[in-house]
Amino acid sequence: MTTLEQMGAKAKDASRFLMTAGSKKDIALGAIAAALCENCEEILAANKIDLENGEKSGLTASLLDRLRLSEERINGMADGVRQVAALPDPVGRVLDGRTLKNGLQIEKVTVPMGVIGIIFEARPNVTSDAAALCLKAGSAVILRGGKEAFHSNMAIAKVMRDALEKAGFPRDCVALVEDTTRQSATELMQLSDYLDVLIPRGGAGLIKSVVENAKVPVIETGVGNCHIYVDKSADIEMAKNIVFNGKTSRPSVCNALETLLVHKDIAEKALPVIKAELDKKNVEIRGCDRTKQILGDCVVSATEEDYRVEFLDYIIAVKVVDSLDDAIAHIQKYSTGHSECIVTSDYNSANEFTARIDSAAVYVNASTRFTDGGEFGLGAEIGISTQKLHARGPMGLNELTSSKYIIRGNGQIR
Amino acid sequence: MTTLEQMGAKAKDASRFLMTAGSKKDIALGAIAAALCENCEEILAANKIDLENGEKSGLTASLLDRLRLSEERINGMADGVRQVAALPDPVGRVLDGRTLKNGLQIEKVTVPMGVIGIIFEARPNVTSDAAALCLKAGSAVILRGGKEAFHSNMAIAKVMRDALEKAGFPRDCVALVEDTTRQSATELMQLSDYLDVLIPRGGAGLIKSVVENAKVPVIETGVGNCHIYVDKSADIEMAKNIVFNGKTSRPSVCNALETLLVHKDIAEKALPVIKAELDKKNVEIRGCDRTKQILGDCVVSATEEDYRVEFLDYIIAVKVVDSLDDAIAHIQKYSTGHSECIVTSDYNSANEFTARIDSAAVYVNASTRFTDGGEFGLGAEIGISTQKLHARGPMGLNELTSSKYIIRGNGQIR
């Protein structure tokens, strides 16, 4: 057995304990939250090593900021764990049921997944956030974080495992892969004897590697090439506000706007208004020929690649389209299936867009930035699924469960 | 583009038509049913070629029977298509919804998967059954059948595609892979640009190949190493009937019983009664040492492999266990997560078993043979999922859909 297989086997055992742990899970989560606060100094000391290493290896200021912990941030992590504990138990809900003619009583109930693998990148707070959600959902979790946060993640995982043990839980309910090489990520993607599902949280590169290598069921998350289409009937003021919010309120996240499509009949009026707003944040515009005709030479010529890519930056691709059909065709071609929006005052255009756009979240007259578990009222979020199997869009605790049928009889045979 | 990629691109286009086809899908299904009956002779002629080839290549009598079509069987296929048409539309159901404080109206609605791939083996009737279910669920389907049924499948697919075209639908709503080499199956498993989900229907070999090779989301189906545990408090007469039914009513299917576990306190009384019943069908018993002590030398010594394998035959593995805990531990070790049963008259044992056994269907005092979409009242079945993601147990039309969020606002920004 490899180290990872041993970890998988231990996690599988722990998952059997969790399966029937019921509300005791909340006690364990409370213990974890308290332990995070109590061991704040140890965690900060480990974080300091990561920060020093990060500075030496030339991490950008924004990456260093994502990596940095403080007493306040650790208290925030503990609060997050307590909030998860306070949510309703997603396990044991009866989803469906009936009594068959032969007297069999059949019910479909939610059950834990078993063992969940999570691959994530720079932020150390994901260690406690993700572990808390998996525990609450009755599953053991194997975490594999990025090398930048290695010492922080190790310290946080140790605190959680110690707290679990003190609370009478197997410490292997939470495990952290100590090897942060690419090899260990690939091995985790292929741990099919032990892993019931893998959730990669990261950029396009990680998702691509998972699609190529995974031999366990996967929930893809996060890549968002999000579009907004400004219909000819749009309220230009509203369109301007939604574009500005979608593009500039937080350009680095997956629900940020990447491409603006504008109907030709409104482009001459709308584009200058939108551009003036985007100029406030120095957003670079990469446009089609018609966009350039309207906005002038300040617009960079958009390439095919510009329509395909997730900029995650103060850059927006713009295209003038002839019709709603053309806008839909463009989105069908380039979308990653995350979030798209139409701004319109036309009832039929709104219906057409919501019916034909096949993305996790389809908006009429609202910012794509709302695609988020917290905003949607799911209580907490483990990620945003861009696939169609099992979960689509923001995933909360319910999406971390599976189901089984329980059938009660008194001797029925077929 | 390879031939399969071209097929995938056409199927994706067709799926966009189907996405908004609504109740027109039922008209197309009616046309397909009528066309199957009208073109019965052509289909039978193609089937005759497969049967002749099968005889030449030495297919077993039971495989030849599965392959054989008749006017009656083709009418049965047409009836199956009509029954699917009569089911409620699984697309457009509102699963959840709320109005947020900021006024956003959010709803989660079911939508088609898009393009579904199905790999199946000998039975040509799967061609129309599976296609009808996928169409009703609003998805295009790419079918890849076994080489034994090649001519039959081609004829059935042609009839369906012609009927679709006459009904005003794209004929590429249904496609059949003409290449029946192993290579084409592998290529289909990796068609990630076009396939939204792959459902392999077949034995352990196919499932293993899919786990190894697939780069698209998969719903695993069908491998069932099903267990029955006869508790010390069991009604022996009931246990006897359920074991006999589970093992002998149809040994070749995935919900058939493979292993019998018996509590030591009841083994001496129960095993001879059960054996006498199984003898009526000459079931071979492979038992542990204690089983042999009770039943004598007619029992073959069970190997580790006997507890692991799906016999799909008149063979049963038997083991005497010390406790409910031991029975559960055995099942956790060897089960494929399909269907397991406890026979008991003890309330706590029943609860313990249903809570701790992590399989798609967990029975108290009833035969595992009930694990079936029709028996469960799902209306129709595309297969039985043995994985935890998306669908578990018998899958009907609802399990062939995905969902999306539609969010309606009036200018909200975040």
TrEMBL record, chains A, B:
<dbReference type="Pfam" id="PF00171">
    <property type="entry name" value="Aldedh"/>
</dbReference>
<comment type="function">
    <text>Catalyzes the NADPH-dependent reduction of L-glutamate 5-phosphate into L-glutamate 5-semialdehyde and phosphate. The product spontaneously undergoes cyclization to form 1-pyrroline-5-carboxylate.</text>
</comment>
<keyword id="KW-0521">NADP</keyword>
<dbReference type="InterPro" id="IPR000965">
    <property type="entry name" value="GPR_dom"/>
</dbReference>
<protein>
    <recommendedName>
        <fullName>Gamma-glutamyl phosphate reductase</fullName>
        <ecNumber>1.2.1.41</ecNumber>
    </recommendedName>
</protein>
<dbReference type="InterPro" id="IPR020593">
    <property type="entry name" value="G-glutamylP_reductase_CS"/>
</dbReference>
<keyword id="KW-0560">Oxidoreductase</keyword>
<comment type="similarity">
    <text>Belongs to the gamma-glutamyl phosphate reductase family.</text>
</comment>
<dbReference type="GO" id="GO:0004350">
    <property type="term" value="F:glutamate-5-semialdehyde dehydrogenase activity"/>
</dbReference>
<keyword id="KW-0963">Cytoplasm</keyword>
<comment type="pathway">
    <text>Amino-acid biosynthesis; L-proline biosynthesis; L-glutamate 5-semialdehyde from L-glutamate: step 2/2.</text>
</comment>
<dbReference type="InterPro" id="IPR012134">
    <property type="entry name" value="Glu-5-SA_DH"/>
</dbReference>
<feature type="domain" description="Aldehyde dehydrogenase">
    <location>
        <begin position="68"/>
        <end position="283"/>
    </location>
</feature>
<dbReference type="InterPro" id="IPR016162">
    <property type="entry name" value="Ald_DH_N"/>
</dbReference>
<dbReference type="InterPro" id="IPR016163">
    <property type="entry name" value="Ald_DH_C"/>
</dbReference>
<keyword id="KW-0641">Proline biosynthesis</keyword>
<keyword id="KW-0028">Amino-acid biosynthesis</keyword>
<dbReference type="InterPro" id="IPR016161">
    <property type="entry name" value="Ald_DH/histidinol_DH"/>
</dbReference>
<feature type="domain" description="Aldehyde dehydrogenase">
    <location>
        <begin position="315"/>
        <end position="377"/>
    </location>
</feature>
<dbReference type="InterPro" id="IPR015590">
    <property type="entry name" value="Aldehyde_DH_dom"/>
</dbReference>
